[in-house]
Every structure is written in structure tokens, then in C-alpha cells.
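Listing S7. Sequence submitted for prediction.
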Amino acid sequence: PILRFHPWVFSGAIARIEGNPADGDVTEVDSKRGELLGVGHFHHGSIAVRLLSFEAADLESKVFWINKFQNALAVRKTAGLGGNAETNCHRLVHGEGDGLSGLIIDVYGKTAVVQCHSIGMHRQRDLIAAALKKVFGEKLEAVYDKSADTLPPKYAENQTNDYVWSAIDAPA
């Protein structure tokens, strides 16, 4: 499935895990021959890795996220959203459809609402917010994390929905 660009790596397809990755860790997936197949977030469970790139990529780089969000915004603008004078609301990121398995981002006016469905995405929410600020500039005044009800239950126990960033709280 990975060779056909399906972003989920199921646990039964894994022959060997190197090291002791924690849920949400960035991990590389290699073929039996040692060829890099992709990079994504690890999770102990049936979906063991959610791939975000099918080539080498630094998922902890703001540039990676900026490129993904710029691509998603370009698609929305082509579809008549994201800059449409008739509406200031649109879905910027729709998970796998935008190459960001486990992430939904809706834009409501000047607020981006982030919904993470994986621990890896949730752990990177500050980086996601920073990239959104770069892509939208002054058009964005807040990034709100609404993930508490969509994360794996045990991890979600200690999570609350709250602002990741707000221009009101930002230093002048």
C-alpha cells in the first residue's frame, strides 16, 4: 500500500522496529531492502505509522509544515475557497487528502481551528501554529486546538481544548 502512496502503515506489515519509539515519535519506514519508504508519526496500535512524506523529510522543521499548508491553501483557492469574498470559512487541511494524516484544520475568519487525531500531530501543535502564522501572516489572529475529544483516550485524559496562540496574548 505504501508504494501506492497510502499513508497508513499497519502493525501487521512491520517486520522489525528499531529502538523503542514512543507514541507520537517521528519515525522513518524502510523496505526490507533498507530503502526509505516514508516518514511519519509512530503509534502503538493497529495503525502503527501515519506517513506524512513518501521521501526524506524533516517533520520537525517549520519549512515542512509551511510547504504543506501553502499547498493545501493553493488547492482551496483553486476550488474557490481560501480568499473567496463570499465566505471567510473553509477547511484548510483534510487529513490524508492533504498528505497530513491525523490532522484537520478549519479556518473561521481570522482563527484556525486545529483538530489532531494522532498523538504525533498533537505533539507538534506549536510547530503547526508557527507555520500557520507564517502562511497567513496578519490574516491570522489565533490558532485554537480542539483535539481533546479526537485524540487516543489515554493520552487525551490530560488534554484540554485551548488556544495554542492568540495575537491578543502575543508580545507587542
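Caption to Listing S7: primary sequence and predicted C-alpha cells for the chain studied. The first strand starts at residue 8 and ends at 10. Strands lie at 8-10, 26-30, 36-42, 47-53, 89-94, 103-108, 111-116, 142-145, 162-166.
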